[in-house]
Amino acid sequence: MAEFWEEAFKDKQEMWGLEPAKSAIVTNDFFIANNVKNVLIPGVGYGRNANVFIQSGMTVTGIEISETAIGIAKKHFGNDLEIYHGSVTEMPFDTKLYDGIFCYALIHLLDKTERIKLITDCYNQLTENGYMIFTTITKDAKTYGQGTYISKDRFEMFGGVKMFFYDRETIAEEFGKAGLFEFSEIKENYPFYIIKCKKGV
């Protein structure tokens, strides 16, 4: 997967623009309301979703597999955004605890073992009463069922991207033991769920 994203960023650079995703804006408002100060973003990319948190005065740390994306982020944010180079499957990269974690459109690119590990690793890096918010694609996406079948609700498409499509049952199954307290639908470029968990719930 590392090679795929490296090539994608080299070819298209800031391929999603510089405006934050709608769910990043919603999460930022939620974090402000809940006094979150220290945010971890697994899969931070070139930082378009980090900026909204930085602008709100939060300290942001990212994890990113693409060196090209990290280079672009450094160009935009300099020392305002610390980024660990590596895969989220290799978490944790530090021993810090964060009171907020935001993971955008990443978890559905992993297999089940990797998804459970990511959820667990993120939960373990939360402070007590900290929040983690994930966004993920739903079965309502037009791409659901397309491409090559891998396993239940998981397909390979777009020249090698393996994608898992969530529904309410799999959200409850995978996030239920990680402080899940709310999830809802949110429209991005695809229909997504925004999933909220709290440490200690």
Automatic annotation (TrEMBL):
Domain Methyltransferase type: from-to ranges: 43-134
Alphabetic keyword roster: Methyltransferase, Transferase
Presence of the UniProt keyword Membrane in the record: no
GO molecular function: S-adenosylmethionine-dependent methyltransferase activity
Keyword Transferase: yes
InterPro entries: Methyltransf_11, SAM-dependent_MTases_sf
UniProt GO BP: methylation
UniProt-recorded name of the protein: Methyltransferase
